[in-house]
Amino acid sequence: MGDKCGAHTFPYMEIRNPSAVVEHEATTSKIADDQLFYCRSRGVSEEDAVNMIVNGFCKVVFKELPMEFAVEAQNLLAVSLEGSVG
Amino acid sequence: MLSIRDLHAQIGVRKILKGVNLEVKPGEVHAIMGPNGSGKSTLASVLAGRAGYEVTKGTAHYLGDDLLALEPEERARRGVFLAFQYPVEIPGVNNAYLLKAALNAVRKQRGLPDLDAFEFLALIKDKMKLMQMDESFLSRGVNEGFSGGEKKRNEILQMSVLEPTLALLDETDSGLDIDALRVVATGVNSLRSPERAIVMVTHYQRLLDYIEPDFVHVLSDGRILRTGDKSLALELEKRGYDWVKQEASAA
Ligand SMILES: Nc1ncnc2c1ncn2[C@@H]1O[C@H](COP(=O)(O)OP(=O)(O)OP(=O)(O)O)[C@@H](O)[C@H]1O
Ligand SMILES: [Mg+2]
User: Fold this and answer.
1) Which end of chain A, C or N, has fewer beta carbons within 10 A?
2) d(CA A80, CA B128)
């Protein structure tokens, strides 16, 4: 996932699919499935849909973080998403 | 255009569709009515490709192809559009961003070049006027915090931008105020053309005053029990569904 990650344990960085994002809440993984299907039903590929949803989710989470963490988290997200596609 | 033969589908061990037959030709508008839980949304979901349903028997062909063999995004790109009964919220994903990605995916399939941001904005602003939607909806998350009626309007906005060949509308009229119903109907009617078809699920005769169907079907307990014209909807409004079930079981 990149060398920047070593020092941080950021809980949202391990994401490979959107159901994993919200594993800790039983009902929300159903929501993630629905979100994925919604995007795909609009013609967006599964990969692109996963990226979109994860990005969006993180954007919402990062809004809650202090500024310096938010920037770092955005960078990490960019790195981790590169790795998960293709 | 859409040809459904003896379609059986279940979730887990629960059988929901029990032999649906439906033939939709280009230019036609079909209304599907029926009691709660009869399988209307399930039929729409199976046609759009939602996971979790097992088709145990029967076929569905779209423009000659085996629809059920295609991935959901593949169906969408070929012109199938489902307006959801309960559109999901996708926080943080920009409404306009998703729609632009969707439009360009569909355009690619049609052999058209991507629209750039300017062209897209011009198009969508035009369509939003038609749907009487404020431009602020562009920058919000997909359906995020939208009211029930706003979500339905957003579905029809997407539809009018994507210009599907086969539109499946699942209770798009539910939860709409009187003015919104008229706006949504205008959006749907502007899509009507000899090449396109519309299948709409509804509980209310009223919608059919605005969008006149060629056929009305009654889906009950996973089967289409009766098919008629617009007058069937009026009769259902007066008499309910019991007589349809009784006549079907007597036959
Ligand atoms: N995930 C599921 N697990 C078990 N049963 C399900 C599931 N999803 C749907 N069903 C059942 O399948 C049946 C058909 O549901 P469906 O949503 O297709 O009905 P509907 O005709 O659209 O009803 P409504 O008019 O209320 O929207 C219902 O009895 C419902 O409870
Ligand atoms: Mg339904």
Assistant:
1) C
2) 36
Cα of B99 vs its chain's centroid, Å? 17
CB contact (8 A) between residue A52 and residue B99: no
- For the segment B71-127, what is each residue's pLDDT rounded down to a tens digit? 999 999 999 999 999 999 999 999 999 999 999 999 999 999 999 999 999 999 999
Q: Identify whether the C-beta of residue B66 lies closer than 8 Å to the C-beta of residue B126.
A: no
Give me the pLDDT at residue A27, please.
57
Determine the pLDDT at residue A75.
76
Parallel/antiparallel/unpaired status of strands B223-228 and B14-24: unpaired
State the pTM of this model: 0.87
Among B32, B35, B56, B34, smallest CA distance to B46 is for B56
CA distances from B29 to B3, B60, B154, B156, B191 (A): 14, 18, 21, 16, 11
pLDDT at A57: 84
What is the phi/psi pair of residue A48, to 5°? Answer: -65, -40
Q: Dump the DSSP string for B34-101.
A: --TTSSHHHHHHHHHT-TT-EEEEEEEEETTEEGGGS-HHHHHHTTEEEE-SSPPPEEEEEHHHHHHH
Hey, which residues 36-75 in chain A have their CB within 8 Å of chain B? 37-46, 48-49, 52-53, 55-60
B41 lines ligand 1 (CB under 6 A): yes
Counting beta carbons within 10 angstroms of the beta carbon of residue B237, is it exposed (0 to 12), middle (13 to 18) or buried (19 or more)?
middle
Classify residue A7 by burial, with Cβ atoms within 10 Å: 0-12, 13-18, 19+.
exposed
Contact between chains at A34 and B73 (C-beta distance less than 8 A):
no
> In this predicted model, what pLDDT tens digit does every residue of A72-83 receive, in sequence order?
777 777 766 555
**Do residues B150 and B181 touch, judged by C-beta distance below 8 A?**
no
Q: Which domains, from first to last, does chain B contain?
A: 2-250 (3.40.50.300)
